[in-house]
Specification:
about 475 residues; alpha+beta; PH-domain like; Transferase(Phosphotransferase), domain 1; 2 domains; five-stranded antiparallel beta sheet; four-stranded antiparallel beta sheet; 20 helices; 18 strands
Length: about 475
């Protein structure tokens, strides 16, 4: 069996260390004891029933913990252990997320999860986003097996425009999905777009969705909040695959304002939907890129949902604007067909004449990576209280723009809806349209975990903004 990784390690014993060789094959970890004769060999299957933990000391990995007949620590040099951890990635389950990462701040919230900003305890200049899922919620919705089937799906979706899942941890009350942290949000970039930028960005988004469709998956929650950038508009990343499925479409779900009409008006007894639902959502996003306006509007989310279901599409803003190419209007019309059988698919979008209308080069856009990163990092208070306490950096920033932060704090997240049944009108009537939807502490607390609680208790006493990866090297040099 050919191995992709091999390292020397040892087990500490009272009567002397046992020298071992640890190898990673395609589907196994193989540990060979070379201190004894005959050599003893243990094989562990690489799957989600294999739990692995690490020892950390002085910001370096010391040992990896594996269970054969019982739990053993295998000691090796830091770099080999880092390489091993990266190779294993999301193919196994790690234990002890707080051994390897410091939680800095909650930066997002989904229907059944929270998203935290993490700082590596091994490399203090590395930051990650961590989706934290409550185990009780997971067990009630899909079960552990269902969750790890979704994780396996994410691993198979490796594409330059899709955020990569790096590691999976399981704690006492939560699961943790560790991903790369991207600081540049589509909603920020949207404000700065010119018409030369739009095809650059939109083509990347369609390419990501096209890859998913080729693999047999539907995203089902495409919206601006699920689009990020790594440094510049040339590095789009599609995120949040909580509603992604390979099954036939028989459940009502999505975000009001972006849901395809066949989902909202679905009668699960007689029909179902397919990947064309993502095309409609792409069309709504494209409309917003072209006009800076929402296609389906309303004074609250219930009104947006109702207008979304009625699907009365008005393209007057496009036809009245001479700067918008006719090819863009044609493409949008093909994506927003109410009948999904008449809707264009992702391959046809990528071949549409709209993308051939202009040569896309790095010289025809105003939004360079530096300009975007600096603009949206200028109001950030870089350091968390934990970083200051441990003297990790000496921050060049001592204040932030209070007015900007207050405006951000007043913005309410758009809720993802998973509808159990009934018409849109029934759903709307059952809700209080005037209700304040701002998340309160109790809702947030519901999803906090024992692994992060102690550190976050100190964080929550202070108002600060998460650090930006684009500034970390500059901070370090300062």
């Amino acid at each position: 069996m050919e191995s992709s990784f091999k390292m020397d390690c040892c087990r500490h014993k009272l009567l002397g260390n046992k020298l071992c060789i640890l190898e990673v094959a395609s589907d196994k970890i193989i540990i060979t004891n070379i201190s004894d004769l005959p050599h003893k060999r243990n094989e562990l299957d690489l799957n989600y029933n294999l739990f692995i933990d690490f020892k950390v000391k002085n910001k370096q990995l010391q040992a990896i913990g594996l269970t054969t007949n019982k739990h053993h620590w295998y000691y090796a040099d830091n770099q080999n252990l880092i390489n091993l951890k990266q190779i294993l990635g999301a193919r196994v389950v790690f234990k002890g997320v707080n051994t390897l990462y410091n939680p800095l701040q909650q930066i997002g919230q989904g229907t059944f999860s929270n998203v935290y900003l993490l700082q590596s305890k091994i490399k203090s200049l590395e930051y990650f986003a961590c989706k934290c899922l409550d185990k009780a919620q997971v067990d009630a919705q899909i079960g552990r097996q269902g969750l790890f089937e979704e994780i396996q799906a994410m691993i198979s979706l490796k594409h330059q425009n899709i955020a990569e899942l790096l590691e999976v941890f399981e704690g006492d009350v939560s699961y943790y999905m560790v991903m790369q942290y991207y600081d540049l949000e589509f909603t920020d970039v949207l404000k700065e777009l010119n018409h030369e930028d739009i095809p650059i960005i939109f083509k990347q988004l369609v390419a990501a969705v096209n890859f998913m469709h080729e693999k047999g998956y539907m995203h089902r929650d495409l919206k601006p909040e699920n689009i990020m950038f790594s440094d510049s508009i040339y590095q789009l990343k599609l995120i949040d695959f909580g509603l992604t499925t390979k099954d036939s479409g028989k459940s009502k779900c999505g975000t009001p304002g972006y849901i395809a009409p066949e989902i909202l008006n679905l009668d699960t007894r007689i029909n179902e939907y397919n990947e064309k639902c993502d095309i409609f959502s792409l069309g709504v996003i494209f409309y917003k890129m072209l006009t800076q306006n929402d296609l389906f509007q309303g004074s609250n989310h219930d009104e947006v949902l109702e207008n979304n279901a009625k699907c009365n599409i008005n393209l007057d803003l496009l036809t009245a604007n001479p700067k918008i190419p006719k090819q863009a209007l044609n493409l949008l019309t093909l994506m927003l067909q109410i009948d999904p059988t008449q809707r264009i698919d992702t391959n046809q979008i990528l071949q549409h004449k709209y993308f051939a209308a202009e040569e896309i080069t790095s010289n025809n856009t105003l939004n360079s990576a530096n300009q975007l990163s600096r603009k949206h990092s200028s109001v950030i208070k870089i350091l968390s209280p934990l970083q200051k306490k441990n003297f990790l950096f000496s921050s060049p920033f001592s204040f932030h723009d209070d007015e900007c932060i207050e405006k951000e704090a007043s913005m309410q997240p758009i809720p993802v809806m998973i509808m159990k049944g009934g018409s849109v009108q029934d759903i709307v009537k059952s809700k209080n349209s005037g209700k304040n939807r701002k998340l309160n502490k109790e809702v947030t607390k519901k999803y906090q975990t024992t692994d992060f609680e102690d550190a976050l208790a100190e964080m929550n006493q202070n108002n600060y903004r998460p650090p930006k990866p684009s500034q970390l090297q500059e901070m370090y040099n300062e």
